[in-house]
Amino acid sequence: MDALYVFVTTSLPKAGAQVAGLPLTLNLLLTAYVILRRPNQTLLTMQRFRGLTIAYGTLFIFGTLSMLMALAQGVSAFTLSQMLIVVGSPLVGVAAARIPPERFSRIIICSMIIVNAYGLIQYFAGIESTSVAGLTYTLGQNISDKPIGLKADGTAEKIISTYQNGNSLGIFDALGISFLLTRSQSSRFWGITRYLALALGLVGLMLSGSRSIQIPFFLFLVVLLAQFIKQLSPRKRGITLSIGSVLLAVGAFFLYVQQTIVSHFFDRLFNQTLADPTGSGRTEQWSQSFEVISQMNGWQLLRQILFGQNPHTNVGGEGLPKFFFIFGFISTIAFYGGLLYIVWQCWQRRKSRTVAIGILCVFCAFCVDQSFNYPPNIMNVALFAAAALNRDGETSRRCLSISVSK
């Protein structure tokens, strides 16, 4: 069941239907099952690292209190579900801890190929014409209402694949690439498909149109590749560089032949960014946030620091300021501090340093957009982090089994 959960979460996260105005997806149903099936295992996974236990424990306590206060004041069901996603999603890392590392890697390879191959189909054939209700997007929702930047000619600025959102697709690709770079395969078949998944992931990231993840990823790309090469043995280093050079040449030829992908990427990342230095108003939200805070009285400020805003307070914004207004100062420190702690823990392990960079890129994305509000973004971070930190997979699973028997 854990393997099924990882596959659904990473490849078909929006498969399901909208019920009473809220999405009821297979991913969310399996999330509840994975967390609640063996609660002691879930807690044990979180307790493996003291710093993470403190960060998540703080987020859980203050996040739950924020939800209860918001519920008492008439928060909408949709906003409450988003808050629940943020607080509950980190717990799904237990699924990755219960799966053999090689099986987890192969699931990610399959998901990367499926998601990004479908993204290419969307790019060439159109998003609306290739979408399948209930499978590639939630039945009952309108795919044209999603933030994909549809143009008059029917093309889109953001390819969404099965994630319904370009930002979410970009986050998955950044995590998938950083994870697969250091996960060699025992068979030739899976070794080849791993390289295919990496190549498609890079193209998918380019097509996602998500500047919030593209900018940090390509800024850290040199460091990412350097860490990948460092962890290889001298023999594997030469072989990998040779294969990488061939794949790079093939990829460059493909992009040269299909220059619309390159032009799409450069137009979105450079031309539109330079034309709007505010990042669609994101840089201005910091001053607006301080202005809103300066107008609060003593009780409002205390409420904001501890539990976030009154749900009827209309404060816009994206990223970290939005998280602060929803959950308050303490939960914000716990959430973002916990992400940085995971980055640091991954960096301490030589073979997980590329994953650390991938999660750091997602941290940057969470600072500037609201992707943390939507599944499966935090879930994917938790899954990849748990898989990366699970160095001794068999030992960890034996400990989990012992905890159940006790």
Automatic annotation (TrEMBL):
Keyword Transmembrane helix attached: yes
Domain O-antigen ligase-related: 196-295
Principal location: membrane
Alphabetic keyword roster: Ligase, Membrane, Transmembrane, Transmembrane helix
Domain of life of the source: Bacteria
Locations listed in the record: Membrane
Amino-acid biosynthesis is among the record's keywords: no
GO MF terms held by the record: ligase activity
Regions crossing the membrane: 15-36, 48-71, 77-97, 104-125, 213-229, 238-257, 323-343
Membrane topology type: Multi-pass membrane protein
Any Gene Ontology CC annotation: membrane
Annotated protein name in UniProt: O-Antigen ligase
